[in-house]
Known about the structure:
Helix content: 10-25%
CATH superfamily of the largest domain: ANL, C-terminal domain
Structural class: alpha/beta
Mean pLDDT: 88
Order of helices and strands: HEHEHEEEEEEEEEHEEHEE
CATH class of the largest domain: Alpha Beta
Number of domains: 3
Radius of gyration: 19 Å
Largest sheet: 9 strands, mixed
Bound molecules: zinc ion
Amino acid sequence: MSVYLDHWERFDPVHVFGYPSSLARLLLFAEQNGRRMMTRSLRAAFVTGELFTPQDRRIIEEHLQVPVADGYGSREAGFIAHQCMEGRYHVTMESLIVELLDSRQQPVSIGESGEVTVTHLDAYGMPFIRYRTGDWARMSAVPCPCGRGLESIECIEGRKTDMLRTADGGWAHALSLIYVLREARGIRRFCIEQSENLDLTVSVVADESFDQAMRQSVVSGLQRRIGGNARISLQQVAEIPHTASGKHRCIVSRAG
Ligand SMILES: [Zn+2]
């Protein structure tokens, strides 16, 4: 990471682009090593490839002091939506038809969550027609104040595989659990694993302000979300390893 920072300093970029967890990690590394980030020419940071958590956004904004925009896409479809200055995700309607479908392949009503399904308008080598991405999102009902006429997605909820099973047979999506952990002081990074019987193992990287009262509030908050008799065990760890692709996966469920 020191080598990356040296390169950053020499290059003096106008914008940076990366996985949010990687960028946040690099910036925390810089801080821990007493290095000031070179942002002389920097105008914006772009992130992609993961669920963009509020924690990562805060770290990137605090360290770089420039607007941060998330780009949502997939390997097959390319960029599906880009975030504007208002924080909405505008669909790249010039090259894609994006539909949000329910489990019976029917379009959901505006404001309801559905599976992002794409039809490519300019993929001549390999057609993608109503291709289901596995991601879930909600379309926005009102026009974006930024003035762009492109449809906008209000909330990208992540992959079904990033969701947890609840005791009543439903699903809790990653964001609803992230809120529980975000409210706890001191947590820098976390990973939640769910076993087949719905029990959760929660690993957190936290600083010294994460005390016993915070632990208790996280455990009871998660217990409420899952319901039933799910047992929650919380462990503090030094580091949470990234997956082989370099992405950070914060929710893993085996209860499918
Ligand atoms: Zn907008």
